[in-house]
Amino acid sequence: MKASEIRELDAAGLRQRLLELRREQLQMRLSQATGQEARVHRHRQLRRDIARVKTVMREAAS
């Protein structure tokens, strides 16, 4: 997800998106721990998307 797309969301949308990303990250961690995960590159994408959402939330708060 691009930062410009994230900036279009309101505060509630940002919180919802962050929650969705964290859930997906947790599911991927669990599936990797059991040896089922094949999309290893998605971990990096999720981590960066979470950072983007948090950055936009911080910008909006200040």
Structure description:
With 62 residues, the chain is an all-alpha fold. The protein has a single domain, classed as Orthogonal Bundle (Helix Hairpins). Helix content is 79%, strand content 0%. The chain contains three helices and no strands. The protein has helices spanning 3-7, 11-33, 41-61. Helix 2 runs antiparallel to helix 3 (41-61). The mean pLDDT is 91.
Question: In brief, what are we looking at here?
Answer:
The chain is an all-alpha fold and 62 residues long. It contains three helices and no strands.
Low-pLDDT segments: none
Q: List the domain count as a whole number.
A: 1
Strand content: under 5%
Q: What is the CATH class designation?
A: Mainly Alpha
Give the biggest sheet. Answer: none
- Structural classification: mainly alpha
CATH level-3 fold name: Helix Hairpins
Secondary structure: helix percent: over 70%
Extended strand count: 0
Our measurement of the CA-to-CA distance between the termini, rounded to an integer number of angstroms, reads 23 Å
Morphology = elongated
Order of helices and strands: HHH
The overall average pLDDT, rounded, is 91
Radius of gyration: 13 Å
Tally of individual helices: 3
Helix/strand layout:
Blueprint: H1 3-7, H2 11-33, H3 41-61
Helix pairs in contact: 2-3
